[in-house]
Amino acid sequence: MAKNPADISKNFCVMPWTNLATETNGKCKICCIVMTNKYVKKDDGTDYEIQTDAIEDIWNSNYIKNVRKKMLAGEWVSDCFYCKGQEDQNQKSPRHSYNEMWFDESVISKAHESRASGGYVTALPTSLEPRPGILCNLKCNMCWSMSSSKIFSERKAAVENDFAQIPSFLKDDWKHEVEWAAKSDFAWSEKDVYLENFRKCMPTLKRLYFTGGEPTLIKSNLTLLEQMIEAKKTDLLVSFTTNLQVLPQEWLDILPNFSRVEVTGSIDGLAEVNDYIRFPSQWKNVSENLRKLYDMYPKIFLSVIYVVQVSNIFSYVDFIRWVAVNFPERQMQVMPTMLQGPEFLRPEILTDELRLKATLYIDEALEDSSIMLKNREYLKDIKSQINNINPNAGDLRNKFREYIQYLDSTRKTQYLKTFPEMKSLIDGK
After folding, report:
1. Contact 283, 291 (CB under 8 A)
2. Smallest Cα–Cα separation from 20: which of 98, 114, 129?
3. What is the mean pLDDT of residues 336-363?
4. Residue 224: which pLDDT band, with cuts at 50, 70 and 90?
5. Alpha carbon distance 257, 235 (integer Å)
6. What is the pLDDT of residue 36?
7. Mean per-residue pLDDT over the chain, rounded
8. Are 186 and 24 within 8 A, CB to CB?
9. pLDDT given at position 262
10. Mean pLDDT of 112-134
């Protein structure tokens, strides 16, 4: 009998046996980490959609059954590209975290069942990760039209303006994503089929994780929580990621009804750094709402997800020090995740000079015992990651400079005022 995931297969992950995620357009993925274009497909090559297809058909589609079979055989599937990349660099991946949280006897039983039945699993998913639409109040510099209504509006106006000075390397991509978003159905979370699919999963649901868009702005999320309370289904983990710009009272009132609530704040820098990257975020709102959630412990468990990109490596150190000072009695974890794209914003474009400075800055923080141990361990991960160098870094730096100049000209921001330490990157020296 298997006692740990590696006993089942060398790259086993609980998610294909427990979880179903959606993109903002209702198309389905095995988990939220899977890249956008890796949708669960029907035999004819079209995509399953949570608002039009029965959950049973999606969950035991040939696509997902094949993922399970390959994983049981120890093969990596293309859906798992991100985790494989992390593990190839000896980094902890989301797969490891999911296995730590959710690997149990029920998963072992499902794995054995699917091994004997061609990948089939009788039980419906016990974890759902819906992303119901793109309604958002921010225009993060690494985001795109399929995740933020604000980005969609900004880029739609740009591509329709013959005089807009869009960087040449981005014009076609922006035009394509704007067209894609314009024809997408982002109101799918109000459709009867989706609501029925959710009701089918509700009795055995162990985890519900909302992302967005901004989940607290999307009314259907609150509707689902209200329905679960009415059905007396409150014995589960409810979690969501929020940019902390708004924190509606109705959310604060409803969340304590559930047995476990985890809120992850999306913060990508301290103060003005976060405000620049997550434009037009206001740090006053972020810090105040972070404190509100923090003070609701133990009804709410709070953490932070920090997307590491080239501009905010130094600020990660500043932010975890700020956490240590402002929340000393119970520091929250600040979990770094490396930006997947766009490539020209990734840390691999650091110059040798900046990479050395960042390494020394991290080394100094590693000796700071006031910072909780877990956050210092995360620092070691960042230190390892920033020493990866992209062979096309020169070309990517040029694209980075063009993009930053475009943002500053259209948003009336000043990159070097916020990031003076990055002057050599902007100057091309």
Report:
1. no
2. 129
3. 95
4. very high
5. 9
6. 73
7. 96
8. yes
9. 97
10. 97
**Predicted pLDDT of residue 296:** 95
Express as a percent the part of the chain with pLDDT over 90.
Answer: 91
Sheet holding 127-129, edge to edge: 28-29, 19-22, 127-129, 207-210, 237-242, 260-266, 301-308, 334-338
* pLDDT higher than 70, residue 429: no
Domains and CATH numbers, the chain: 5-121 (no CATH), 188-427 (3.80.30.10)
d(CA 116, CA 223): 39
DSSP code of residue 125: P
- The model's pLDDT over 282-333, given as tens digits with 9 standing for 90+, comes to 999 999 999 999 999 999 999 999 999 999 999 999 999 999 999 998 999 9
Contact criterion met (CB below 8 Å) for 77 and 29: no
28-29 and 19-22 as β-strands: parallel, antiparallel, unpaired?
antiparallel
Relative orientation angle of helices 105-116 and 62-72, to the nearest 10 degrees: 110
The two structure tokens encoding residue 301: 């468990």
* Strand stretches in 126-211, DSSP E: 127-129, 207-210
Pairing of strands 127-129, 301-308: unpaired
Separation between Cα atoms, residue 172 and residue 321, nearest integer Å: 41
Could you give the count of Cα atoms lying within 13 Å of 4 in the half-sphere of its Cβ? 5
For residues 211 and 129, the answer to whether their CB atoms sit within 8 Å is yes
Pair of tokens at residue 119? 């990948």
**First-to-last CA distance in the chain?**
59
Residues 6 or more apart whose CB falls under 8 angstroms from that of 240 comprise 209, 210, 211, 215, 216, 221, 263, 264
Calculate helix-pair angle for 168-182, 149-159, nearest 10 degrees. 120
pLDDT of residue 1: 66
Residues 175, 385: Cα–Cα separation, whole Å? 32
CA 293 to chain CA centroid, nearest Å: 20
- pTM score above 0.90: yes
